[in-house]
Each structure stands twice: as C-alpha cells, then as structure tokens.
Write a structure and sequence with these properties.
Chain A is built from 19 helices and 9 strands. Chain A has about 425 residues and is an alpha+beta fold. Chain A is globular, with a radius of gyration of 24 Å. Chain B is an all-alpha fold. In chain B, helix 10 runs antiparallel to helix 13 and helix 12 packs antiparallel against helix 13. Chains A and B meet through helix 4, helix 11, helix 18 and helix 19 of A and helix 7 and helix 12 of B.
Chain lengths: ~425, ~290
C-alpha cells in the first residue's frame, strides 16, 4: 500500500517535471466578434497549431457592442484578460494614440505589409506605426435591382450621383405594390444611421467639426444632407424606416421590397446568397457623390491588435501574422472556396483571377479605394475617420445626434429642429470634453 | 407566544443571513456611490481625481433627464395598469372549469419564459413592422394604411411588448389567489341575490388585494430596469421618445465609457426608485401586514 502510493507520487512528480521540460506551451486569449469570417477562422486552427505547436489559443467570442465594452474596460483598467483584440477602425487611432496598443511594424517579411490595401492600412496607422492588422475590410456601395431599374427605362451608372439615385428611386417606387425605390438606415445609433449619414454628408461637403473643433450642424452642407435624405426617404423609402438598421433593410431587400439599398459591401454576399429571392437580379455601383470629390461611402475593418502590457507579445504576434497573412486567404480558399475568403484587406486578393469571378469583387475593391480615412471630407478637418470621428467622445455624441435625426425621419421633429438640437448637444459635449476652449 | 429568550435566540439565528444580505446590498451600492464622485472616464486614464457633485450636476441637467424620468414613469404605470387589469380578467377566465384547462394555462404562462430580447425582436419584425408585420397585413386586408408602431407610438409599443411579457406573471399569481377563494361564501352571496358584479367587487377583489400588491411590487422592481426591449426596438428613439432612466445610464456607460457619470445616474435612479417604492408601500403596503 505504502509502496504503491510512493511510486505513484514519484511518477507524478516525474511526469510533471518532464511535462514542464518538454512543452513550454504559451496560452493566449483572443477576443473576437461573432461574425462568420471570425467563426470560420476558429475552424481552421489546426493549421495554426501545426505551424506553432507551442502556442495554444483560447477564444472569447462576443457580440460587437459587448466586445467593445469588455475590451475597453479591460484595456483601460489594464486587466490583462486578452492578448489579442479584435477591434475596428474607430478604436485603433484612439487607442494607438493613448499608447494602449503594441506596434505591429516588425511582423515577418512574408506578412507583406505593402500588400495591404492603402485605404485600410491608412485607417490603422497612427504616426506612421501600424497598430492593428486588418482581418476583413468593408466599405459601402449601392446594391440595386437590375430588373426594376431596367423596367423603369433607366440605367444605373457605375459611379452615380445623388441626383441619379433620386431619379431612379422616384421611378422605381410603387407603394401600392410595396416596392420602395430606396432603403436606407434610419435606426438611431453611431454605428447605425449615423454611419450612413456621416458618410453621406462627406459627399455633400459637410463635416462634423471645423479646424477649431466647432460643430458644423448649423452650416448649409449639413442642412442639405439631411433635407435630401428626408426627402428621399419620405417619398421613396419604406414605412417605419426610422427603426430600420442593417438587418431590417437586408430583410426588405431580400424579399424584393427595395429597388436600391446603400449599405455595407459585405451585404452583397447576402443579397446574392441562398436566402435572397432576388439573388440573380442584383447589380452593384459605387456610393453616390455630388461632384465635390468625395463619395458617400464608408470604410471599416475588423482588425487584430495586441494590448500594450501583455506578457505574451511574441506568441500574439505569431497568431496575428498567421490570421492575416496572404497564406491564410489561400488556406480559406482551398478549404471553403474563394467566395468565403475574408474580403477587403489585400491588393493581391483582388488581382487573383479566381476571386475576380465573384460579381461584387471589383465594386467592393473600388468602394474601399474610394474612401480615404485620413482626408474624409471636402474641407480640411482636424480628425480622421470616414463615417466616424476618431475621438473617444464620438460614439456617445453621435448616438444622441442619431436619435435626433431618426426623430426627424419619423416626422416627430423638423429637420431644422433636429439640426439645432444636434448642434447644441455636440457643442455642450465638446465643451465638457475640453475640445472647445 | 414567544418568550424573551426565544426571541433573542431567533435574532442570533437570523443574524448571519441578514448580515450576508446586508453585505450583498451594501458593497455594490458603496462602490457605485464612490465611483459617482470620481472623474472616471475609461478612455482618459490620465484624467483622475474627485469630481465633487459634477457627475450628478451633468446627469440631472442633461437635456434628456426630465423626459427620461417621465418615460420611466409612463412605462411602469402603463405596464402595471395593463398587466393588473388584464391579469385579473385572465385569472377569472382561467379559473372557470373548461375542457383543456391544463394546456391553456401552460400556454398562457409561456410568454414569461421567452427571453426579453427574443420577444422584442419577434414583436418588432413579425408584428409591428409596417411592411412585413402581421398588423400591417391585417390593416392592408381591411383596406387601411399600415401603422408605423415603433416610429409613431414608440412608448405605447414598448408598453405593449413589455405587458405581453409580464401579463402571464400577473395572471399566474392572481390565479393562485383566486383558487384559494372560498366557494361557499360565493354561493351564500349568490343565494342572497348578489349580482355577479357585486360578488366580484365585495368578495373577489378584496380577496385578491394582497396578490395584487405582490404583483405591483415585484413588477415595479423589474420594470424600472427594462433595457433589452428598448435597445432592440427603438434604441431610445425616435429622438428621445422612448429613452428611460435605465437606458440613459446604459448610454453613458456603454457609449461614453463615463463610469463616473453612469454611476451618478445609477444612484439617481436608485433614489428615484426608492421614492416610488415609498409611495407604493404607503398606498398598498398595508395589505402585506397580516
């Protein structure tokens, strides 16, 4: 009895020792969003483990807003829960400037930094340092029903103006058949209606702030933007648009209620997918402009970054290199086909003849290239970001402004009152935050 | 009749659990109060220190504050009215003997087990949507213009959704109370010639008061913290038409990352909730003293 116990103990001790000596496994925790491309990556981890047997990855998968909240809290309180973060183009410039992220300038040569799309890389670079590696990127574009536009005797240009959009929307609206010329976001939120409206306002020559951080909602370009949006949506939009976000509009489009929809480029794969009743009738065009040199399309990239202060920087970098390397795109293509490759990050993907066969590939690339996060507006501004202003206060302010604009769309307040309220609340918040002296 | 000794012993016996409950309550409360006096914005780690009453000042003078208080009151009172009255009617109905009673009772209670986010999504997209919703189809079938519920009557729509979720709870509590109603008393009153209405007012309703009190108290606690239904359906809009105090606090912490401001808002909400509780207790609380 005693002998057995002793032998067992000895064996355990030996086993522990040998275990420690052989595999120095580094565990890293990756916080990520619950979208399709990210979930797909988790299924392909065997390839990563084959190349990096000494690293083990734990996943924390969360819904977008929850992820943002958790990661912000973790990084602000130096909680150290995560070694790799999935963050968007809104957070990267702010956090990079705060010194919260590890620079990714020293990734290995086969990462091919120069291959990243310039517009995307520009949005993730602060003072010349790349602070996050893009996993997938998107812009926005016009998705339209070729059959309806044709039936109205019109053609959609590849690069339409807002006047073209208005004309086509008027001609394709038939409310008796529940067919609406245009579906746009109206639900309040900085990532909902304000993402669309801010991008749209750029093409009207509007801006959030002038060089002295003074809010510009009392200026004519914003009044023009809102008036055009309200006129378009009231005459040609679906009822209840003030509560429609991405998902609601997607449903309307897939069921054939909309002739046009201006939204994220990733939606192209859904409206041409198997859930869509109009999959074979879809055409794509660049987001509209007003001849002022800026288009009304946004730019977003879910990207991987490393929080400053992690003990496992080397392992985290190996993981980011694997997940956003050109080889990863090839890996996904070989296992799941080119249509499922995370889009919008690399030039080489779009020069690939296999990928070019996908109907919306070219328009996605053109849309991304048409956005410039470092010079988003017609006039010079003190901020970066296309459909957002890369300052920490923006999410809060834009959500409240979004409420005002959504009320204007619902008709419970006038455009002038909504703009006045937006100007007033933005001025208050910016004064409180110390931008306006 | 408890003796002096046994009462003292009883107090010692319950002391640990009371102490635990007290700690359970006081630790988060004190932390929140502490945060509410700090300059604490997660996005500005370099700005630190005591804020004094600034956080409270900003929250109370916020342009949305009064509207948010009003919306909270409308939400709570509206849902309480619907669920208590509807609950009594449902309970009376379900208390009658009919075929398939057991199945119907289970079905009536079912909405209570649907998660708030799910039921809000179902209501928003399958019922209230002016293009695809069922109400829109019915309106069109009758030759009417579909009504944009969440756009034009956001608060009423949210009250409707929340009432649907909470009606089963009220029904359940009131039904159990009804089942303990003495049937001999009812029969006696009936023989004396009391009408159905008088029997309801003088026998059933007084019997139900304690159950109604429980329903009102418990529901008020939960209704004051309604968040998911608003976030899913309207995001507090259009404008601020459906922004409640709870939602306002969430906006502060979620979008502004302003822990200090959100804590101050939370404390304000606690104070307001206590004021409401005092009134509710005064009005109906005496029913709870046996």
């Amino acid at each position: 009895m005693k002998m057995t116990l002793r032998a067992l103990l000895g064996a355990t001790a030996l086993f522990t020792l040998s275990g420690a000596a052989f595999a120095e496994t580094t565990e890293i925790t990756v916080a990520t969003v619950n979208n399709g491309d990210m979930i797909r990556m988790q299924g392909l981890m065997d390839d990563f483990y084959a190349k990096n047997p000494d690293i083990h990855v734990n996943w924390v998968t969360l819904e977008e807003n929850v992820l943002r909240q958790k990661v912000t809290t973790d990084i602000a309180t130096k909680g150290g829960q995560f070694d790799v973060l999935t963050i968007g183009t809104y957070e990267v410039p702010i956090w990079g400037k705060q010194g919260w992220l590890v620079s990714l300038d020293d990734l290995p040569a086969d990462y091919q930094k120069d291959d990243l799309l310039p517009a995307i890389a520009g949005g993730l670079t602060v003072d010349g340092h790349l602070y996050a590696s893009p996993f997938y990127g998107e812009s926005s574009m016009v998705m339209y029903r070729k059959d309806l536009v044709e039936a109205a005797g019109l053609t959609m240009p590849d690069a339409p103006t807002w006047a073209d959009i208005k004309k086509i929307a008027d001609a394709t609206t038939d409310k008796s058949k529940e067919q609406y010329g245009i579906c746009l976001r109206g639900k309040a939120g900085w990532g909902e209606n304000m993402a669309f409206l801010t991008a749209m306002s750029n093409s009207f020559g509007a801006k959030w702030f002038d060089m002295d951080w003074k809010p510009q909602f009392d200026q004519k370009p914003w009044a023009d933007t809102l008036a055009f949006y309200l006129d378009l949506m009231t005459n040609d939009g679906p009822p209840g648009a003030s509560n429609n976000g991405f998902n609601e509009n997607l449903a309307l489009m897939q069921q054939g209620h909309c002739a046009m929809w201006i939204d994220a480029t990733v939606a192209a794969s859904f409206v041409t997918g198997k859930d869509s009743t109009v999959a074979d009738k879809m055409g794509f065009a660049l987001a509209p402009d007003n001849g002022l040199g800026k288009r009304g399309n946004w730019l977003w990239a879910w990207s991987l970054a490393i929080p400053a202060g992690t003990q496992k920087e080397a392992a985290a970098k190996k993981f980011i290199d694997w997940a956003t390397n050109p080889d990863y795109l090839a890996l996904v293509a070989s296992k799941e086909g080119w249509a499922n490759v995370p889009p919008g990050t690399r030039t080489s993907l779009y020069s690939n003849p296999e990928y070019a066969k996908i109907p919306f590939a070219k328009m996605t690339l053109d849309s991304i290239n048409a956005a410039d996060p470092t010079h988003p507006t017609v006039d010079p501004v003190p901020y970066t970001g296309v459909q957002f202003v890369a300052i920490p206060e923006f999410a809060g302010i834009a959500t409240e402004v979004g409420q005002q604009f959504s009320a204007a769309l619902a008709g419970t307040t006038s455009a002038a009152d909504a703009l006045a309220a937006a100007q007033d609340l933005t001025t208050t918040e910016m004064t409180k935050a110390g931008y306006i002296k | 009749m408890a003796t002096q000794h046994s009462r003292i012993a009883a107090r010692f016996m319950v002391a640990p659990s009371v102490g635990l409950l007290f700690v359970w309550m006081i630790v988060p409360l004190v932390t929140t109060i502490y945060f509410s006096f700090l300059i604490y914005n997660q996005l500005y780690p370099d700005r630190q220190g005591w804020a004094g009453f600034d956080n409270y000042y900003y929250f109370l003078t916020d342009r949305n504050f009064l509207q948010a208080v009003w919306n909270s009151v409308v939400l709570v009172v509206g849902v309480l009215a619907i669920t208590v009255i509807g609950g009594i009617l449902f309970a009376l109905l379900l208390n009658m003997p009919f075929w398939g009673q057991g199945v119907v009772r289970v079905m009536v209670i079912a909405p209570f087990f649907v998660m708030p986010t799910v039921s809000a999504l179902v209501w928003k997209n399958m019922f209230m949507n002016p293009v695809n919703g069922m109400f829109a189809h019915i309106a069109k079938g009758l030759g009417l213009e579909p009504y944009d519920f969440l756009g034009h009557a956001p608060m009423a729509s949210i009250i409707g959704i929340v009432s649907w979720e909470w009606l089963p709870f009220a029904t359940l509590i009131l039904l159990t109370a009804l089942q303990s109603l003495d049937s001999e008393q009812q029969e006696a009153a009936e023989m004396d010639g009391a009408s159905w209405l008088s029997r309801f007012i003088y026998l059933t309703l007084p019997h139900l008061t304690r159950a109604i009190t429980v329903v009102i108290l418990i529901q008020t606690i939960f209704l004051l913290s309604i968040y998911a239904e608003i976030a899913v359906t309207t995001n507090g809009g259009p404008g601020t038409a459906s922004t409640t105090i709870t939602y306002q606090v969430a906006l502060k912490s979620l979008y502004d990352n302003d822990v200090g401001g959100a804590s101050a808002g939370g404390i304000v909400a606690v104070i307001l909730a206590n004021i409401v509780a005092v009134f509710v207790m005064r009005m109906i609380g005496k029913n709870l003293e046996a």
